[in-house]
Amino acid sequence: SMDILGTMVALTGVKIAPERPLDGVNLLPFLSGIKKGSPHDILFWQMFDKQHSAVRRGSDKLIVMVESEGGNQLYQLSQDIGESHNRIKSDKATAKELKRELDAWTAQIKPAIFDPLGTWDP
User: Fold this and answer.
1) Cβ contact 38:25 at 8 Å
2) Using an 8 Å Cβ cutoff, are 27 and 39 in contact?
3) pTM of the model
4) How does pLDDT run across 59-108, given as a tens digit for each residue?
5) Which helix (H) or strand (E) holds 5?
6) How is 23-69 classified by DSSP, letter by letter?
7) Which has the closest alpha carbon to 101: 60, 50, 49?
8) Which residues lie below 8 Å from residue 37, measured CB to CB, with a gap of 6+?
9) CA distances from 17 to 20, 24, 105 (A)
10) Are 50 and 65 in contact (CB under 8 A)?
11) Residues 6 or more apart from 47 whose CB is under 8 A from it?
């Protein structure tokens, strides 16, 4: 997690170049109780193959997958921690908002410069 880097920077005092800011948070104030709540308003995930991704904002979690593997899924985790009730059809507005957030985040990700998980076949 990038938060580990943010926390390590805070612990070591290493200077981070302004042109290459960390995409993370110093977790020390949250661990020590100085700050309350969540260190993030929104969280994003993406699989190396870019066929699966997810976004969580508050208790809402959108999972984006190819149709052959289940398609998009929307869960309200405060009421459904086991992700058993897919709300993708009943709450289209939330799904659309989260997808817009995920697309904006994905657009700023640079392509991997290494072979993720040994998938390259020369």
Assistant:
1) no
2) yes
3) 0.72
4) 999 999 987 788 899 999 999 999 999 999 999 999 999 999 999 998 88
5) helix 2-12
6) SS---HHHHHTSS-S-S-SEEEEE-TTSS-EEEEETTEEEEE--GGG
7) 60
8) 30
9) 5, 14, 21
10) no
11) 53
CA 84, CA 75: separation in Å to the nearest integer? 8
Structure tokens at 122: 């020369």
The span from the CA of 4 to the CA of 83, in Å, is: 27
Q: CA angle, corner 60, sides to 39 and 78, nearest 5? A: 85
pLDDT tier at 3, thresholds 50, 70, 90:
low
Query: What are 2's two structure tokens?
Result: 């990038």
